């Protein structure tokens, strides 16, 4: 399956990605994770991306598209993939169309996770992530068994530097201005699957699985 996960910051894209990649056996391509890895490793790309991410702004399209195209040409993406956090602008969506055309493949679905803005802020601020395996938790909605420690691997949990209230609010505004037009873009092509993201995590996963199995 060739899938896109669309939704505002904190909607649950990363959380549902963990479910979808296991259920449908596709690789997870998160542009946010790619940038965070580069920041951690101190690469030139990481240094350039960090300036934008810390302010809640989008990294310029030119930096993002090339990374995704390279990744989509890797062997594990030949039978499918899950794009999480890409595309995020109309320019990125049009570039992706061209990449897929060159690969002679088509998208199966764009999963649009819908959550209202007031809930997004508390979800993002309460998020904790495992330094070691990347698993996502929430201090009250989905806490680990032992505070600060990953259930899956025992790794230490941390809070993302862009998960502070002011930056989260900026990210939501950027989503409304630059990313939400993609809902129409994919809706017009009958690719869009709307998912009610305010339910609990398992119910959201069940709805996604049911929609994709048709
Ligand atoms: P990115 O890493 O993509 O972040 P985002 O889109 O802001 O999304 P989040 O990771 O914040 O949220 P999510 O939807 O994955 O939610 P999660 O599952 O973790 O991007 C970060 C930055 O990188 C951008 O701001 C930009 O600068 C840059 N960037 C990335 N891609 C780019 C691109 N294509 N172009 C330009 N720039 C780009 O869930 C959140 C919390 O809620 C968790 O704690 C979770 O446990 C909890 N939760 C999840 N689901 C539920 C539920 N159903 N009920 C209760 N709690 C839940
Ligand atoms: Zn872990």
TrEMBL record:
Family: Belongs to the adenylate kinase family.
Role: Catalyzes the reversible transfer of the terminal phosphate group between ATP and AMP. Plays an important role in cellular energy homeostasis and in adenine nucleotide metabolism.
Pathway listed: Purine metabolism; AMP biosynthesis via salvage pathway; AMP from ADP: step 1/1
Reactions the enzyme catalyzes: AMP + ATP = 2 ADP
Keywords carried by this UniProt record: ATP-binding, Cytoplasm, Kinase, Metal-binding, Nucleotide biosynthesis, Nucleotide-binding, Transferase, Zinc
Region (NMP): 30-59
Binding site for Zn(2+): 130, 133, 150, 153
Keyword Coiled coil attributed: no
Renumbered residue ranges of the record's region LID: 126-163
CDD domains in the cross-refs: ADK (cd01428)
Limits of the Adenylate kinase active site lid domain: 127-162
Gene Ontology molecular function: AMP kinase activity
Nucleotide-binding among keywords: yes
Subunit structure: Monomer.
Residues reported in the UniProt entry to bind AMP: 31, 36, 57-59, 85-88, 92, 160, 171
Domain notes: Consists of three domains, a large central CORE domain and two small peripheral domains, NMPbind and LID, which undergo movements during catalysis. The LID domain closes over the site of phosphoryl transfer upon ATP binding. Assembling and dissambling the active center during each catalytic cycle provides an effective means to prevent ATP hydrolysis. Some bacteria have evolved a zinc-coordinating structure that stabilizes the LID domain.
Protein name from the UniProt record: Adenylate kinase
Binding site for ATP: 10-15, 127, 136-137, 199
Location, primary (coarse class): cytoplasm
Subcellular location: Cytoplasm
Source lineage: Bacteria, Bacillati, Bacillota, Clostridia, Eubacteriales
Gene3D superfamilies: P-loop containing nucleotide triphosphate hydrolases
Pfam families, per the entry: ADK, ADK_lid
Enzyme Commission number(s): 2.7.4.3
SUPFAM superfamilies in alphabetical order: P-loop containing nucleoside triphosphate hydrolases
InterPro entries the record matches: Adenyl_kin_sub, Adenylat/UMP-CMP_kin, Adenylat_kinase_CS, Adenylate_kinase_lid-dom, P-loop_NTPase
């Amino acid at each position: 399956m060739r899938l896109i996960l669309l939704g505002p910051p904190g909607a649950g894209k990363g959380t549902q990605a963990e479910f979808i990649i296991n259920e449908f056996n596709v690789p997870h391509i998160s542009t946010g994770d790619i940038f965070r890895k580069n920041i951690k490793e101190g690469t030139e790309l990481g240094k350039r991306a960090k300036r934008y991410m810390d302010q809640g702004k989008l990294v310029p399209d030119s930096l993002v598209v090339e990374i995704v195209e390279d990744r989509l040409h890797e062997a594990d993406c030949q039978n499918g993939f899950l794009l999480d956090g890409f595309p995020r602008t109309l320019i990125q969506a049009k570039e992706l169309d061209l990449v897929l055309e060159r690969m002679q493949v088509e998208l199966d679905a764009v999963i649009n996770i819908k959550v209202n803005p007031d809930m997004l802020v508390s979800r993002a601020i309460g998020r904790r992530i495992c330094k070691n395996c990347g698993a996502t938790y929430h201090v009250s909605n989905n806490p680990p068994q032992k505070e600060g420690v990953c259930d899956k691997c025992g790794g230490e949990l941390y809070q993302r530097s862009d998960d502070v209230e002011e930056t989260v609010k900026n990210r939501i505004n950027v989503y409304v201005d630059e990313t939400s037009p993609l809902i129409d873009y994919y809706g017009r092509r009958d690719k869009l699957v709307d998912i009610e993201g305010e339910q609990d995590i398992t119910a959201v996963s069940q709805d996604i699985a049911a929609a994709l199995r048709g």
